[in-house]
């Protein structure tokens, strides 16, 4: 009874405080408050991530790879390229979203093996995640999709080309139909999706050297909800290719550039194989530029 009354009084005083704010600032302050909520960590989501969708790094266990002697596991040499920009930096950190099985086409595995980096591997597909757990990566594993909301989403599992159903372009789905032995109906699953901000808060990461987004359609939705100025993310690699649709591919790249460059923190650096765009934080870029123009 007492608790109820005091919480009601608190509510009343919060309400009074808010109306004073509205009177004082007009509608504008409320709008900024709503916009800011997009970037506010959600403790329930964080709890869910840590208690249900999380596996610890396999420290102390040997990697269990199919090809243990490969140097670069990335699809088009992305790892080596990024390693050059970082000048062989050791002990860095990564977040790879769309981690697959953690070996095939992995952008981060090179850094784990050769540069002693650690990080977070996010993979939504159940088959991929089962394989990923067996690799004994020295990374936190999270079995979820990245999105702009904590929600259950329909996920189409299709090897390295799977993604959230509602964010996937028609041409990409068509491509999956043509290239995968199973059909879209039987491979659709309900998967938990989280926002980037809740994942990074859950794992307590302060600096991300290398963020990889390879999520087959959800890239823009995700980027729109990452507060790029609140975290230090040094290199962002985003897949922009929309399979079998040249026009949508170019529009998507433009949109990705708009979002990242509007922060004023990044340089649009390069595209790799007409698939991945690389953005580099300005300070990292200037260091790299100084090194590469230094006379021998
Ligand atoms: C990386 O971490 C290891 C182990 O903590 C340490 O011995 C090494 O000096 C570090 N390397 C750099 C370049 O900081
Ligand atoms: C290593 O991976 C293989 C599949 O590639 C699996 O059969 C085996 O159980 C894994 N070993 C461990 C210790 O997880
Ligand atoms: C897809 O697979 C499901 C389950 O096996 C089956 O019922 C359905 O007829 C298949 N659809 C097509 C278009 O082949
Ligand atoms: C999430 O993304 C979808 C599609 O891109 C959009 O319609 C929706 O408004 C977004 N929601 C939030 C909370 O940003």
From TrEMBL:
Cellular component aspect of the GO annotation: endoplasmic reticulum membrane; Golgi apparatus; late endosome membrane; plasma membrane
GO BP term (any one): endosomal transport
Cross-referenced Pfam families: Methyltransf_21
Gene3D superfamilies named among the record's database cross-references: Vaccinia Virus protein VP39 (3.40.50.150)
Keyword Heme: no
InterPro entries, per database record: EGF_Rcpt_Signaling_Reg, FkbM_mtfrase, SAM-dependent_MTases_sf
Segments forming domain Methyltransferase FkbM: 96-240
Extent of the signal sequence: none
Domain of life: Eukaryota
Entry's transmembrane regions: 12-31
Keywords: Membrane, Transmembrane, Transmembrane helix
Name recorded for this polypeptide: DgyrCDS14158
């Amino acid at each position: 009874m007492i608790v109820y009354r005091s919480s009601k009084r608190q509510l009343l005083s919060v309400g009074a405080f808010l109306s004073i704010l509205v009177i004082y600032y007009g509608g504008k302050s409320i709008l900024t408050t709503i916009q800011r909520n997009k970037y506010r960590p959600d403790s329930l989501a964080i709890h869910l991530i840590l208690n249900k969708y999380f596996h610890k790094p396999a420290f102390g266990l040997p990697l269990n790879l199919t090809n243990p002697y490969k140097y670069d596991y990335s699809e088009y040499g992305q790892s080596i390229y990024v390693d050059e920009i970082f000048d062989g930096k050791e002990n860095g950190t990564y977040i790879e979203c769309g981690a697959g099985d953690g070996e095939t086409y992995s952008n981060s595995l090179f850094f784990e093996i050769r540069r002693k980096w650690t990080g977070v591997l996010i993979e939504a597909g159940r088959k991929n995640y089962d394989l990923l757990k067996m690799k004994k990566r020295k990374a936190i594993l999270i079995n979820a999709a990245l999105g702009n909301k904590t929600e259950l989403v329909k996920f189409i599992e299709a090897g390295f080309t799977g993604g959230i159903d509602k964010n996937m372009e028609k041409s990409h789905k068509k491509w999956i139909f043509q290239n995968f032995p199973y059909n879209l109906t039987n491979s659709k699953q309900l998967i938990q999706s989280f926002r980037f901000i809740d994942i990074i808060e859950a794992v307590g990461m302060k600096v991300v050297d290398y963020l990889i987004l390879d999520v087959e359609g959800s890239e823009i939705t995700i980027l729109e909800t990452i507060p790029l100025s609140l975290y230090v993310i040094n290199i962002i690699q985003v897949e922009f290719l929309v399979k079998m649709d040249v026009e949508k591919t170019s529009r998507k790249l433009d949109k990705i550039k708009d979002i990242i460059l509007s922060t004023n923190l990044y340089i649009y650096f390069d595209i790799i194989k007409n698939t991945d765009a690389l953005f580099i934080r300005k300070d990292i870029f200037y260091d790299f530029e100084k090194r590469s123009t230094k006379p021998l």
